[in-house]
């Protein structure tokens, strides 16, 4: 019986490590996308810079129910969605596809603490 339990437990731990590495890799890929699309010129992950709301602040303010609205904000820019902060219009920043905007919004909303 011990011969079965040890390899099974070891396989489970290795699988968990792979999932964690995949999640970390996914987060790094999305952060790279945020950098490439110049989101990080104004936004940070933490609340360090007061220029624009941090990704974390956005995640705490909005829920998954707001995802479509946030995708629209990423796509079109504008103002009146966060105090006096104005997001640049699309002509003033790199083009973001709807698929990229959805990835970015989902990544941000995953930061929400319950």
Q: Rough shape? A: globular
SSE run: HHHH
Q: Quick check: average pLDDT?
A: 74
| Discrete helix count | 4
Largest sheet: none
Helix percent band: 55-70%
Task: Kindly name the structural category.
Answer: mainly alpha
Cα gyration radius (Å): 18 Å
**How big a fraction of the residues is strand?**
under 5%
Topology diagram in text:
Elements: H1 2-36, H2 55-61, H3 67-76, H4 98-109
In words, what does this structure look like?
- The structure is a single chain.
- The protein is an all-alpha fold and 114 residues long.
- Helix content is 56%, strand content 0%.
- Helix 1 (2-36) crosses helix 4 (98-109) and helix 3 crosses helix 4 (98-109).
- Residues 4-23 have low confidence and may be disordered.
Can you describe this structure in just a few lines?
The protein has 114 residues and is an all-alpha fold. It is built from four helices and no strands.
């Amino acid at each position: 019986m011990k011969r079965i339990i040890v390899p099974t437990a070891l396989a489970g731990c290795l699988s968990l490590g792979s999932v964690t590495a995949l999640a970390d890799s996914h987060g790094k890929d999305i952060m790279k996308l945020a950098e490439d699309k110049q989101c990080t010129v104004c936004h940070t992950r933490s609340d360090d810079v007061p220029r624009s709301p941090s990704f974390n602040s956005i995640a705490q303010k909005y829920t998954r129910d707001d995802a479509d609205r946030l995708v629209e904000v990423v796509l079109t820019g504008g103002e009146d969605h966060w105090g006096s902060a104005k997001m640049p219009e699309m002509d003033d920043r790199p083009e973001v596809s709807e698929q990229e905007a959805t990835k970015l919004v989902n990544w941000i909303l995953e930061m929400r603490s319950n």
